[in-house]
Amino acid sequence: MHKSKNMVKKHTVLDLFCGCGGMSLGFEMAGFDVELAIDNWEDALVTYRKNHKRVKTVNGDLSTLKPEDVELKYNINNIDVIIGGPPCQGFSVAGKRIINDDRNKLYKSFVRFVEHFRPKAFVMENVPNILSIGDGVIKDTILKDFTRLGYSVCCSVLTASDYGTPQNRRRAVFVGQKEELSFTFPERSIKEPVTTEEAISDLPEGSLDDGSDYPSIPRSDYQRMIRRGATKLYNHQITIHTAETQRIIAMVPDGGNYKCLPKEMWNLRKVHIAWTRMNSKKPCFTIDTGHRHHFHYKFNRIPTVRESARIQSFPDNFIFVGSRTSQNRQVGNAVPPLMAKAIAEQLMKEL
After folding, report:
1. Could you write out the three-class secondary structure of 129-166?
2. What is the pLDDT, as a whole number, of residue 91?
3. Degrees (nearest 5) of the Cα angle 34, 40, 41?
4. Can you tell me the mean pLDDT for 191-209?
5. Strand partners, 212
6. What does the pLDDT look like over 32-77, one tens digit per residue?
7. CA-CA distance, 79 to 70, in Å (whole number)?
8. Contact present, 205 and 299 (Cβ < 8 Å)
9. Of 69, 155, 343, 346, which residue has the fewest beta carbons closer than 10 angstroms?
């Protein structure tokens, strides 16, 4: 059977600072074709390659990588969309010094890649306070940088739980297009947010070997969705805490925190988020990179990698590789795929 001449070619994507591939996955779910992904952390790239087998990957420092060299070496030229989240260490400096701060080389490299490849659009995500730091000087600088390149840019803070992710993670998102901008950020796509219990209640208290059968049937629509395409369970190995740590965790109720402990115990850990339990009836707080202060809503332990991945909206057939510490960091650093998918679907309408 001959292919129709009218078959539409998929829009191509270049993913900068790709990590393990959460943003790539969301764009793939929306029908985009990710051609190349770049990061300088090999652990994350090993996971990326395992789950995005068709995508070329580059382990490189984007502050020194030249886009013209990348184009030649990897035969990448006709890029429709550039996506990514450059690290933002330098964005914490208020005032005009921000523009020349050495730590912003990675952000400037994102600009440089956009300038070289001239995609139809770009999507850049970052921490929410990037819009307010220094009375908006950072935001203004970003808008000027891309406007100078001929892009119309809009920005907004999105909350992942509005798009089916069981987590109240907030991210600032900049979207730019070559043509006069008609992009509007996606509206909330669900009536009721997915709760932590709906996300992970089918996963057991104890460890399972990688490749184990599921120990129970799905208990929610979210679990049915997240299991689609998966036949076995991976990345569900628990952390064994000391008896004393477990005793203290047990004193904190579902959804509670250190203030639920006797006052003399409040300073056992020197961070305000210590001894925080997930709330089973609400979306989870932001999953971090494994600081061991957040606990399961029911079990007296920190979440497993698979539980954290569920809360980030990674499907169960997305398998993480590396040490447990590395896997937790990969999950915590990622863009929730369902939020990325919502942005990508909206952008697809514009393209």
Report:
1. HHHCHHHHHHHHHHHHHHHHCCCEEEEEEEEHHHHCCC
2. 58
3. 95
4. 97
5. 233
6. 999 999 999 999 999 999 999 999 999 999 999 999 999 999 999 8
7. 12
8. yes
9. 69
CB atoms within 10 A of CB 63: 17
Residue 111 backbone phi and psi in degrees, to 5: -60, -45
**How confident is residue 275, by pLDDT bands cut at 50, 70 and 90?**
confident
List the end-to-end C-alpha distance of the chain, in Å, as a whole number. Answer: 29
The three-point CA angle 308-313-317 to 5° equals 90
Is residue 292 left, alpha or beta, with left meaning phi > 0 and alpha meaning psi from -120 to 50?
left
The widest CA-to-CA distance across the chain, in whole angstroms, is: 75
The residues with which 154 forms a beta bridge, in sequence order, are 175
d(CA 303, CA 318): 17
Cα–Cα distances in Å, from 25 out to 19, 30, 115, 285, 344? Answer: 11, 9, 25, 22, 10
Residues designated catalytic: 88
Q: What is the pTM of this model?
A: 0.92
Half-sphere exposure of 249 (CA within 13 A, CB side): 21
DSSP codes, 227-290: HTT--SB-S-------HHHHHHHHTSPTT--GGGS-GGGTTSSSSTTTTEEPPTTSPBPPP-SS
Only one residue has tokens 């988020």, namely 273
- pLDDT tens for 228-256 read 999 999 999 999 999 999 999 999 999 99
